[in-house]
């Protein structure tokens, strides 16, 4: 058996005061005929990335409305995750494809996990490319299958996509964040569903200014000086080195500014530690650059505190499947400056609820403008939070899945 993930309990009614009764009522109506539907989410890891953060809320909310949902993670060792990290990068445009041996490793672990997968599911939702071959190996283990893609496939490495695509095309249904991510020739039903955040999770729940100050102070930040913060994996696509470069430009004009780079290290990201160390090296010992991860006791509440206390939040991605950290940050009603890539423009109305940038220099200029005009930052943060509330909170994502299960375009 594959490893089940314990997700705890959540109640849809607790979200009513945030998203409103009409959405809650729509969800209840959609869920009623789906009571008892057996749904399995299958992913590569139980922590450290956006997929796992979504599932820790989505699965218990599915259960709360009567769907018999479960989440299991596949088994893999370092050789497998080395291959799948390369696969992930190549699908987002990196020029290096997997070697024949790495593709063989990917297939071998998919075969092994397919054998261990339990059967008699109504729906199995396979998340991302790591376990994507499983449907072609054991299609009989569920009545319906869905491939849920969380990454940007708009300009993939052509050789990598050519190798993977036959496995993706076997799925009767697929779900993507954006229409531009859908590879040509995908058969079956294709759905466009952006992801969402949990406003009641420890990372996003309301935190008093006093509590945020207390937490930031514990990590050596001077809480009386301005703070720029990026919360993201230590990954070349997230461009933490570029954030440091932008911070240095800001510091020339505003010498009191500090920078916090905060990220979690995931089990399926073996390159993470190398790039974490490269980020430390790029900081060159600057005492005003704070580089932290979950091994420094930085958890969800700490991330919340850093974001809530920041004067400017940054997500300077150069490639991004969606970038839920953007919505998470904006939910704190703080001004956000982010890369104009992937799903980020869906979350930011440029100039109204934040800023979209393409270069280090643009990022620095926007940060300087916000730091010099606190009223501007407040207006951006307020409008940004309302945009997230209306479009990117978890009850909306739950509704979208129920619609897919219930209609002819969905798997039930």
Q: What does the model show?
A:
It is a single chain. The protein is α/β, with parallel strands linked by helices. The strands form two sheets. It has a seven-stranded mixed sheet, with helices on one face. Strands 10-9-8-11-12-13 form a six-stranded parallel sheet, with helices on both faces. The protein is 43% helix and 15% strand. It has helices at 16-19, 21-31, 50-64, 78-91, 100-116, 134-137, 158-168, 209-218, 240-253, 272-283, 300-309, 324-330, 344-347, 360-372, 374-391, 394-406, and strands spanning 3-4, 38-43, 68-73, 121-127, 142-148, 173-176, 189-192, 227-231, 258-263, 289-293, 312-315, 336-339, 355-357. It is built from 16 helices and 13 strands. Residues 408-412 have low confidence and may be disordered. The relative contact order is 0.13.
List the helices and strands and how they pair.
Elements: E1 3-4, H1 16-19, H2 21-31, E2 38-43, H3 50-64, E3 68-73, H4 78-91, H5 100-116, E4 121-127, H6 134-137, E5 142-148, H7 158-168, E6 173-176, E7 189-192, H8 209-218, E8 227-231, H9 240-253, E9 258-263, H10 272-283, E10 289-293, H11 300-309, E11 312-315, H12 324-330, E12 336-339, H13 344-347, E13 355-357, H14 360-372, H15 374-391, H16 394-406
Parallel strand pairs: 2-3, 2-4, 4-5, 5-6, 6-7, 8-9, 8-11, 9-10, 11-12, 12-13
Antiparallel strand pairs: 1-3
């Amino acid at each position: 058996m594959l490893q089940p993930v314990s997700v705890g309990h959540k109640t849809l009614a607790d979200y009513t005061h945030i998203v409103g009764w009409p959405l809650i009522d729509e969800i209840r109506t959609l869920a009623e005929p789906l009571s008892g539907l057996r749904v399995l989410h299958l992913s590569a890891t139980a922590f450290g990335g956006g997929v796992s953060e979504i599932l820790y809320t989505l699965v218990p909310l599915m259960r709360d409305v009567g769907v018999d949902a479960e989440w299991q993670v596949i088994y893999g060792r370092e050789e497998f995750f080395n291959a799948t990290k390369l696969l992930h990068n190549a699908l987002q445009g990196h020029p290096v494809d997997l070697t024949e041996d790495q593709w063989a490793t990917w297939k071998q672990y998919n075969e092994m996990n397919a054998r261990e997968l339990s059967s008699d599911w109504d729906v199995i939702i396979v998340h991302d490319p790591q376990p994507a071959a499983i449907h072609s190996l054991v299609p009989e283990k569920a009545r319906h299958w869905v491939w849920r893609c969380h990454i940007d496939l708009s300009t993939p490495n052509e050789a990598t996509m050519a190798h993977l695509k036959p496995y993706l095309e076997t799925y009767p249904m697929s779900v993507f964040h954006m229409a531009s991510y859908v590879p040509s020739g995908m058969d079956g039903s294709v759905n466009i569903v952006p992801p969402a955040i949990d406003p009641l999770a420890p990372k996003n729940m309301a935190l008093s200014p006093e509590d945020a100050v207390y937490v930031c102070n514990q990590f050596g930040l001077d809480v009386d000086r301005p703070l720029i913060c990026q919360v993201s994996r230590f990954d070349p696509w997230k461009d933490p080195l570029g954030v440091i470069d932008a911070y240095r430009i800001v510091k020339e004009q505003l010498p009191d500014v500090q920078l916090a780079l905060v990220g979690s290290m995931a089990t399926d990201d073996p390159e993470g530690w190398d790039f974490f160390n490269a980020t430390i090296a790029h900081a060159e010992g600057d005492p005003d650059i704070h580089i932290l991860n979950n091994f420094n006791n930085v958890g969800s509440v700490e991330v919340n505190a850093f974001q809530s206390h920041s004067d400017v939040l940054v997500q300077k991605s150069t490639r991004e499947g969606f970038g839920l950290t953007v919505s998470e940050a904006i939910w704190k009603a703080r001004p956000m400056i982010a890369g104009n890539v992937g799903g980020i423009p869906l979350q930011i109305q440029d100039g109204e609820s934040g800023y979209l940038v393409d270069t280090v220099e643009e990022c620095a200029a926007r940060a300087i403008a916000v730091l010099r005009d606190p009223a501007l930052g407040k207006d951006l943060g307020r409008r940004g939070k309302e945009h997230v509330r209306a479009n990117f909170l978890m009850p909306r994502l739950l509704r979208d899945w129920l619609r897919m299960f219930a209609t002819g375009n969905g798997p039930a």
